[in-house]
Amino acid sequence: MDEEIPMKKSRFTEAQIMGVLRQAEGGLPVSELCREHGISSATFYKWRAKFGGMDASMMSQMKALEDENRRLKRMFADLSMQADLLREALGKK
Q1: Given CB 3.0 to 4.6 Å as the disulfide criterion, which of 12, 31, 46, 48 pairs with 16?
Q2: Residue 17 and residue 51 in contact, taking contact as beta carbons nearer than 8 Å
Q3: Which residues of 18-53 are buried (b: 16+ CB within 10 A; e: fewer)?
Q4: Between helices 30-37 and 14-25, what is the axis angle to 10°?
């Protein structure tokens, strides 16, 4: 029950993502940025929607909160399943 399902590891660090977004803010065309860094335009716009306007500390804080949220959701699902099993076992007596 306590199996961790690892998330896909990003090829880019938070600092690299912030660097790409800063280059775009500096006026570099998105198509050129994407070609230079080997990313799709969809990836760039996803990063911009998610991380635009953040500094590195805010970005790492958000990632920590997302990780905690994922862990708590998993715990809730496990506890709900255990409660259902207990209810079912008590109901059969």
Answers
A1: 12
A2: yes
A3: bebbebbeeeeeeeebbeebebeeebbeebbeebee
A4: 150
DSSP conformational letter for 11: S
What are the extents of the domains in the chain?
A: 12-54, 55-93
How many residues does this entry show for the chain? 93
Contact 81, 4 (CB under 8 A): no
Phi first, then psi: give them for residue 4, nearest 5 degrees.
-90, 125
Q: What is the pTM of this model?
A: 0.58
Higher pLDDT among residues 59 and 5, named by residue: 59
Helix 14-25 × helix 41-51 angle, to 10°: 100
